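Hi there,

I know you've been waiting on this one. I reran it after we fixed the sequence typo, so this is the corrected version. Both the input and the resulting structure follow.
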Amino acid sequence: MPVKIYDEGGRGRERVFLKINDKGNIASIATGSHMVPVGKGIQFYLDDYVVEQIHKCELNLKCLELDIKVKEGETIYKSEKNDEYKRQKEIKELKKRLEELKAD
C-alpha cells in the first residue's frame, strides 16, 4: 500500500528527514516539527499517524525519488483507528516490562 508523501507541512502532518550516506543509502531517519536536519538528506512530510508507525514501512530511494509503502503483513492505522495501534503498543510495552520484572 503506497503512503502519501507531502512537499509541505500542514495540519496532521509531521516532518521527516532521511539522512543519506556517501553511498547514497538511507543512514538514519529523524522526525518531528522541532527536528533540525543535519547533513545530506531529503526532507518531506507524512501524515502524523504514519510517522508514528514508520517502522512498518519500506523506504526506497532511487535517484532522489522517494517511494514509501507499507511492509508486507503490516497495517497502518488511520487516526480514527490509531487507538488500536496505541493499545497494541501499550500491551507490547507492558509484556516487556513484565518479562523484565520476572527476570529480576
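Quick highlight: The radius of gyration is 16 Å.

Best,
R. S.
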